[in-house]
Design a protein that fits this description.
224 residues, alpha/beta, 8-stranded parallel barrel, binds ligand LCLJCK34, binds ligand 3NM, binds magnesium ion
Length: 224
């Protein structure tokens, strides 16, 4: 995701969207983020901190946001539109029980990225798209240990969405280099991952490279 809206991203038909681990120490995480972003193509970083104070989130944004933005990678905050505006993030991601899309848009303005979780629902995605969301996120596609996922999405949903709609779609939930091909070929514009990068046995750079290579291979395989 070049700095700007996901729909303006050009280099590939499907790109990586990194979501941070739910708990992190910003100073310790900064070199890992740098390593990940310098190792390959990443469109977007979402700071997703759970059970943290607003001040903890501010501190993490202040340290991590420049690492992404200096590399033309969009920096999106999960759940907190006001903090996203205050700290200079490129946008916010909101779920169905978070600040409603319209309120998030009012807080952040028209130039910001506002993405919306739509679980496995065509209806929620159409509502979000009609309201003006910059992307819709579907999931979980695979079992995930990162959070308790109450919904299960199928690749067919991505195919249906991407054939009918212009609004980009993000796939999330248990995605790895080994299982991502059906999501790429079904039309996901972005693959959002936590564990496949931050939990990669050889480190985050290897995680990014493996996912970049898997996306490229899937795109090449579906082109022929
Ligand atoms: C890209 C992306 N997709 C989905 C989510 C999940 O959002 P939500 O349902 O609000 O759950 P939490 O992440 O807040 O626990 C996401 N964060 N990012
Ligand atoms: C944050 C999040 N949202 C999901 C959803 O289904 O909406 S799944 C998920 C966790 C994604 O982490 P991992 O790549 O480690 O499975
Ligand atoms: Mg949320």
């Amino acid at each position: 995701m070049a700095k700007g809206k996901p729909s303006q991203a050009e280099p590939a038909a499907c790109r990586l969207y990194l979501v941070t681990p739910p708990a992190l120490e910003p100073a310790a995480f900064a070199p890992l983020l740098t390593e990940a972003l310098d190792s390959g193509d990443v469109a977007c970083v979402q700071l997703r901190l759970k059970d943290c104070s607003d001040d903890d989130i501010r501190r993490a944004c202040d340290l991590l946001r420049p690492i992404a933005q200096e590399r033309e990678v969009a920096f999106i905050l999960n759940d907190h539109p006001r903090l996203a505006r205050e700290t200079g993030c490129d946008g916010v991601h909101v779920g169905q029980t978070d600040t409603p899309y319209r309120d998030a848009r009012k807080i952040l303005g028209n130039d910001a990225i506002v993405g919306v979780t739509c679980h496995d629902s065509r209806h929620l995605a159409m509502l979000a798209g009609e309201e003006g969301a910059d992307y819709v996120a579907f999931g979980a596609f695979f079992p995930t240990a990162t959070k308790t996922a109450e919904y299960q999405a199928e690749p067919e949903l991505l195919r249906w969405w991407s054939e009918l709609m212009e609004v980009p779609c993000v796939a999330i939930g248990g995605i790895t280099a080994d299982n991502c091909a059906p999501l790429v070929t079904a039309g996901a514009d972005f693959l959002a991952v936590v564990n496949a990068v931050w939990g990669h046995a050889q480190g985050p750079a290897a995680g990014v490279r493996a996912l970049n290579a898997a996306i490229e291979a899937a795109l090449a395989g579906s082109a022929g």
